[in-house]
Amino acid sequence: MIEILPWHRDAWRRLSGSAATLHHGQVLSGVSGVGKREFSIALAQRLLCRNPHDQVPCGNCQDCKLFNAGTHPDFHVITSEYEASEGRIELVARYCDRYQDSVARGKKVNPSQVIPVDQIRTLIERFYQSSHISESRVALILPADRMNANAANALLKLLEEPPSGAFFLLVTNQPGLLPSTIRSRCVMEPLPGPTQEQAKDWLSAQLKGVDPNMFLNAASAGPIDLLAAYQTGELQQQLEQTAQITLLLGGQSDPIELAALLAKQDAVLLLTWMHRILSDLLKWQGAGQEPAWVGDSSLDIGRYSPAKLFRLYDKLGRYRLMARDQINLQLALEEILISFQQSFRTYG
Ligand SMILES: [Zn+2]
What pLDDT was estimated at residue 290? Predict the structure, then answer.
């Protein structure tokens, strides 16, 4: 089974007790990179295992064997093409191909970030019609906030009249984007992130010989995202970009030139990273937690306008949504970086 992360043990104890008492709709939320997918997959296996010990799937029964082989007929993974091709969990990739044309997806330059209604329709058919080997059937919908309106409406019907033994695990880092009708039929289960100590310990255990302090200089992110960024080499790039942002904020670099440099990257990844930078600055302003990446630059958060920062944070959120479809990244970045720099001008 996928390991339960140390910071999710309480949530695991609460949710993995008994399939008979667990509410059929669960919204598992939490910031990106805290391990929501890992938790949900472990929970799905727990719900399907016929012989769990101490709330943990046994690993040996027919259900567990099929589950781990990626062939359990009662586990359904509904996701976007983007998640299917970019996601880091192989088991998810194997299951989602039952709902997607992997050949067509492979030919696309920009795989869709939306979960279309036809996947939910197929799920409904399979939940009601196909043969089952387990008493439970589990649908993992990930990221649930990427369902389009028709898909969400179709899912709502299933949530209102679930077939017996059905469980829906809706994973999202933006629960506020789920329709309120869906949220009201589910239990909201926020999954916490680690403490700084837990994150450091966990990263050191995963990356023997690497100084975990280097991660402190990245914009704060969940440890799973940080590990993935390290392994793909993105972390190094993010550290460099963070240094460039620090220069920009200090008025030592040009927003238009920086926009041109940054615009060569994947829009979603880049805007997510920028959102984290801004979130770190807001935390600094609101709670006095100075981000480590500020280093010994002379930034003084007290001199900048909280209202402007919040407006920029909202705007970035909207651009992140737009980036799922199409966005002129260069123009968006110019606008963001200019406002970013201006938010930091002293007033008075
Ligand atoms: Zn088992």
Answer: 87
